[in-house]
Structures are given as C-alpha cells and as structure tokens.
Amino acid sequence: MPIDMWSLGCILSELLTGYPLLPGEDESDQLSCIMELLGMPAQKLLDASKRAKNFVSSKGFPRYCTVTTLPDGTTVLNAGRSRRGKVRGTPGSKEFSTALKGCDDPLFLDFLKQCLEWDPALRMTPSQALRHPWLRRRLPKPPTTMTAGISDKTPVGKSAITSISKLAATTTSSTTVSVSSSSKTRTNLAAITDANGNIQPRTVLPKLVS
C-alpha cells in the first residue's frame, strides 16, 4: 500500500540520523513540518481535502506562516513557530540533505523522495521500491581467502588437503604419546615393587621436624 511507503521513508530516515524526520508536536505542526520539507501539496489534493481550510487559507497560503505584503503589492511568506517555539520554515525551504544531517547519497535521497510523495497515486509502490537502484546496488564482495597463506586465486588442491590432514594426524599422535609418557612417569614415581615384583602403592610420609 502507498501509505506504508510513506512510513518506510520516515523509518529509514530516523534509522540514519537517530531523529524523527517530521517532528510535529500536534496535527497542525505535523503538517507544517511536511510542507517545510516537501513544499505545498498540489491544488487537486487541497480541493479533495475536506479539512484543507483548517491549514491553508483561501488565498492558498499555509496558516502556520505569517504573510507580509510589501508596498509594491508583493506577498512574502515568513517562517512560523510551533507551540513550543520551534521554527518552521516556509514551504519547501528545508533541503533533504539538511533534514538527513548531511547525507549526500543520491540514490538514497531519490528513494526517500519517492516514498514521501504528496500524492498517493504517484507515491512509489513496494514493487517499484524493490526495483529501485538504491536497493539493487551491488556492494563489494568480501574476500574469499580461506587461509592467510593462500590467495583468492590459488585453488586448494588435493595435495594441499592431504598435507593438512597429515599435519593434523601427526599433531594428534604426538600429543597422545606425550600424554602417555607423562602418565607413565607419574605412575613410576608414585609406585614401588615388592620382593615378588608386584607393584605396590608408594606412600610418601611427611618429614618430621624435631
């Protein structure tokens, strides 16, 4: 659904910056944040909205802005403020790169702009998003080196595998012999034989100090 794409754009932006993209304090301020970033909605959308007059004057000016008429008859829009005193610029005065804390990735900016399209009929759909270059961009492949001494292009042949297997077997055998020898030594030290040649446990008496 198109409305889900709007939500996706807001979520991606917040994941990037850590801050809400459109931090409106109430319904009116929320709309002013959207206008500040996206500009005024198309007239056909205003005509189709039953509550447009609550946010846009009969002359087509956003109500959150103050209007100044110059001596020559020119009308100038000035930034407004939220209830908490936050400045809300005139429609379209905030750049996407500024709202995204300096992000300059053109593919991501294009993806986000298509998610945040005023008109739901023109907004990017999920199927279109899956074909967007930002999602289909090829990232560098990780190196395929298996060991530090073998390069990416060097094939691991049968002889190399055999050598590794022999090395592992030799190491295991050596370890077994060492353990066996060590155990035998400990047995000889801890035992003595009697007159008939039978091995008897060796009792170590404590040294008495007079």
Describe the structure.
- This protein has helices spanning 2-17, 27-38, 43-48, 96-99, 106-115, 126-130, 133-136, 158-189; strands spanning 66-69, 75-78, 80-81, 87-88, 191-193, 199-201.
- With 210 residues, it is mostly helical.
- The protein has a domain at 1-137: Transferase(Phosphotransferase), domain 1 (Orthogonal Bundle).
- The chain has a two-stranded antiparallel sheet. The protein has a two-stranded antiparallel sheet with strand order 3-4. The chain has a two-stranded antiparallel sheet with strand order 5-6.
- Helix 1 (2-17) crosses helix 5.
- Keywords: ATP-binding, Kinase, Nucleotide-binding, Serine/threonine-protein kinase, Transferase.
- GO terms for molecular function: ATP binding; protein serine/threonine kinase activity.
Integer average pLDDT: 79
Report the CATH C-level class of the domain at 1-137: Mainly Alpha
Helix percentage range: 40-55%
Radius of gyration from CA coordinates: 39 Å
What is the number of E strands? 6
Fraction of residues in β-strands? 5-15%
Span between termini = 96 Å
CATH homologous superfamily of the domain at 1-137, by name?
Transferase(Phosphotransferase) domain 1
What is the H/E order? HHHEEEEHHHHHEE
List the uncertain runs. 147-156, 171-191, 203-208
InterPro entries: Kinase-like_dom_sf (IPR011009), Prot_kinase_dom (IPR000719), Ser_Thr_dual-spec_kinase (IPR050494)
Keywords: ATP-binding, Kinase, Nucleotide-binding, Serine/threonine-protein kinase, Transferase
Protein name: Dual specificity tyrosine-phosphorylation-regulated kinase 2-like
Domain Protein kinase: 1-135
